[in-house]
Amino acid sequence: MKRVAGFALFFTGVGILIGIWLPNLFVEVLCIILCLLAAYELFFCCGDDK
User: Fold this and answer.
1) Would you say residue 50 has pLDDT above 60?
2) What is the pLDDT of residues 8-34, one digit of tens each?
3) Where, by residue number, does the polypeptide cross the bilayer (predicted)?
4) Which of 7, 19, 44, 49 is the most core-located residue (most Cβ within 10 A)?
């Protein structure tokens, strides 16, 4: 469980850094939506053997 928390905190920090470097809010929101869609696909859909 400590590894999962460390992983989440590390990439939260990476996301904050990326947010600082992005040029405007539209690009940030677009990146957030793309990352959430990719995370949903990987977390909920990749374990199914249908």
Assistant:
1) no
2) 788 888 888 888 887 888 888 887 888
3) 25-46
4) 19
- The pTM is what? 0.58
Q: Which two tokens stand for residue 26?
A: 């539209």
Q: DSSP state, 1?
A: -
Residue 20 corresponds to which amino acid? I
- Cβ pair 35, 22 in contact under 8 A: no
Q: What angle do CA 16, 19, 22 make, to 5 degrees?
A: 155
pLDDT at 49 over 70: no
